[in-house]
Give the backbone structure.
Amino acid sequence: MASIIDIKDECSLHVRNFSFTYKGATTPSLKKVTMPIAKHSVTALIGPSGCGKTTLLRSFNRMHDLYPGNKYEGEIEFEGRNILDPKEDLIHLRTKIGMIFQKPTAFPMSIFDNVAYGMRLQGIKNKTELEGRVEKALQDAAIWKEVKDRLKHDANGLSGGQQQRLCIARAIAVEPEVLLFDEPTSALDPISTQGIEKLVIELKERVSIIIVTHNMQQAARVSDYTGFMYLGDLIELGHTEELFVTPKEKLTQEYITGKFG
Amino acid sequence: MTATQKRIIINRIALGFSTLSAIIALAFLFWILGVLVMKGVDSLSWSIFMFEGSPPGYAESGLKHALVGQLILVGLATLIGVPLGIMAGTYLSEYGKNSKLAHTIRDISDIMMSAPSIVIGAFVYAVVVMPMGHFSAWAGAIALAIIMIPIILRTTDDMLQLVPGTLREAAFALGAPKYKVIMDVVYRGAKAGILTGVLLGIARVGGETAPLLFTSFNDNFFTTDLNEAMPSLTVTMFNYAISPYDDWQQLGWAAAFILSMFILGLNIVGRLILLAGKRK
């Protein structure tokens, strides 16, 4: 069956026997997935369309709860508790586990207000503190130099790649433990893609990162661990190099050599 | 004649007819505007804004009473109708979504939008004027607000739905509670559209006469008492226009001109805002 490596380092998330069923569906979209997510490293999720990688990603911050009727089973352990518990405080959870979307999602407000948004939600009103943390977040997202003279301008005036880095700045400004990336470069040009990949590698010093990607080269470039998913199952999880060079499962090998996909 | 030549000729004939029809339709519009401007501008003078109504033959007569009354009626209707319309539209787009209740509300609102406005006047007469025992500005404003609500409700609903779902998700993903997502992100994204809906709603009720006839009724004197009958430009225009007195008829033209420019202005501003919003 599945070949899941045992991660010796500290883990930030543990998925155990996790199944997920969308509203109205008869069969689950994720079937008893068990998977550790290593702390301060990048875990990539790859697999053909419809394999459940985005569904899994959106379970980590309970995004599915925005649309009633979906069903979680099993366990996702984070900071010592099961975040699938119906009593879980979703607002708190989402400040700890941030998300970057496929298309840039700059809010219709100024660049500064975009980055300050999450901090203001947490009740930070002190202007000096806000200014300091906004600058730091923009610097960490490698976009400070481009926007420092137009922080009051509308964020929608930025290019796609800049907007995506702005979204990353907005997410790291609230100092999360985990960042979820849902195909963050699929709407970007190659140069912007390079910038985002570089950023992902730098950010793992501070946060654990899970990235869903359609692009196997991208997974190979940025990640430490890679999980291959197929039809709602996690087929293999391994060190990225090993998984791409010497996959243990036949399905993985067929996928990475392009026999299907 | 080849098939191609035939097709070109048919094309020219069709194009000619449709252009002609468009010109005829537009000609009436400009004719109306032209007559209004000529007669209206002629009758305009500063005294119109300084004096209230007076019996025919008096030099010191004006439209101050009707202008102020119109502004009060439309302003009050806006204060009642806009919050209700926006909140109802927000419910439909953000909470009701595709539920049965939401669809029923949308259908009823669409029916209300095409209801004859005099019927709404009769309704308000029955539920407000009769119990109060007399005409009032309140009754007129309520009638106008009822006409305004479905317009604003529908544009708000439509405009909020145009805001991409991923923008809402992004706000939720930062730990925002739902009301914050709506206030901070969704409303901001739909700002231009909602404002346009509000302006078009105001423009629509600004020109209504029928629902005011037996709600706010009319008065020839200046008043700001909301519990009394209140003059409006539209009803005043009607009364002056059918009167046999020359000076009253002149005032009627002036009222028609002012009202048309007001509504035309609102419509143009509304469209400009929408255009500016789209260009971004």
